[in-house]
Structure formats: structure tokens, C-alpha cells
Amino acid sequence: MNHDIESPLAVCSEIDATRLTDSARLGMVTDLALHQDELSEISIPQLVNRVCAAARIHQTRFFFDFKNRPYAYVSWAHFNEQQHRQLLAHNSGELEQPERFFIPRDAPYLWFYDLICPFSSPLQIFKTLKESMPTFAMAHLLQRSELDEHKRIRRIW
After folding, report:
1. For strand 70-79 and strand 109-116, is the pairing parallel, antiparallel, or unpaired?
2. Do 69 and 32 touch, CB atoms closer than 8 A?
3. Residue 3 pLDDT more than 50?
4. Nearest CA-CA partner of 157 in 133, 126, 132, 128
5. What does the pLDDT average to over 11-33?
6. Cα(138)–Cα(156) distance, integer angstroms
7. Helices (H), 21-155
8. CA 144 to chain centre
9. 10 Å Cβ neighbour count for 5?
């Protein structure tokens, strides 16, 4: 990957992520994760589990620069009131595992699982996501460290 990407980056091109192969998706996420401190030590099976679980329910998005190079990746899921409260209270246990997090739900609460953007500020990404998901009044990010099980919750909007 070329490291001369300038920040902050706007969304310059849209590539239909549903047309990406699993190998391409995994390759791009792996490359981005290697450059993001909290994910640089993640194991391949953990990364495969995260990416494939989100891709199965089509709740992922890549951001590309003007040369169609990926510079960010996000994944998300929807939750009901009870699950939302469990996540906020750090009392969600298995719900935080990718195979439980990424279950198709028609629910009002939006939670991001992965936000990988090692080459830019996430501000433009948040703005673009908020504009493309106007039905959600708020969104949260579950930040986890695979190495020490430390987690933080951030309200994105």
C-alpha cells in the first residue's frame, strides 16, 4: 500500500463492496489493520472472523481515495433497546463476539464494530456515514483490544 495518502480524505469514489471477493475484502482490511496500532497484533483467524461476519450481512463499507486505494473500513450492526443498554453498560458478554454482533436485525440502535482508518482522521468518515444513515439519531463505536480485552465505548453522533 502506498503511504503518501494525504489526510483528511473525502470519499472520492464508490466501489460496490458487494462485488468484492472475500479475499479482496480480507486483503484490504488486513493491510489497513497492520497500520493501526490497536489492530496490528490481531491474529489472522480473529480478523477473518470479524470481516466475514460483517460481510455476510452486508454491513461494511470501504473508503477509497482518488486512485481507488482503500484508506478506511467500517463495519456495523443494529440492536434493539435491551441489547443497546447491555452494550452501554459493558454487560454484553457474548454479544460483543463477531458471530453474535453481526446478526441481521431490524432495530433502531446503530453500533460500529470496526473503524479502521490508519491514514486519516475519522471525522470525514463519520460525517459521510451519518449522511448515508439518516434514520439513526445516534451511533456508537465499540472499541476493543483483542490482546487485553480492554474496551471503550464512544458515541459517534
Report:
1. antiparallel
2. no
3. no
4. 126
5. 79
6. 7
7. 22-34, 44-56, 81-88, 98-101, 123-132
8. 12
9. 16
Helix H or strand E segment including 63 = strand 60-64
Q: Which three cell numbers stand for residue 139?
A: 451511533
**CA 55 distance to own-chain centroid:** 11
For 36, which DSSP code?
S
> 56-93 pLDDT, tens per residue?
999 999 999 888 899 999 999 999 999 999 999 887 77
Query: How far is 110 from 133, CA to CA, in rounded Å?
Result: 9
Residues 68, 127: Cα–Cα separation, whole Å: 20
Note the pTM of the prediction, 2 decimals. 0.83
Half-sphere exposure of 92 (CA within 13 A, CB side): 24
**Sign of the dihedral defined by the CA atoms of residues 146, 58, 122, 81, in that order:** negative
Cα–Cα distance, 96 to 86 (Å, whole number): 10
Looking at 3.10.450, 3.30.1490, 3.40.630, 3.40.190, the CATH number of the domain 17-155 comes to 3.40.630
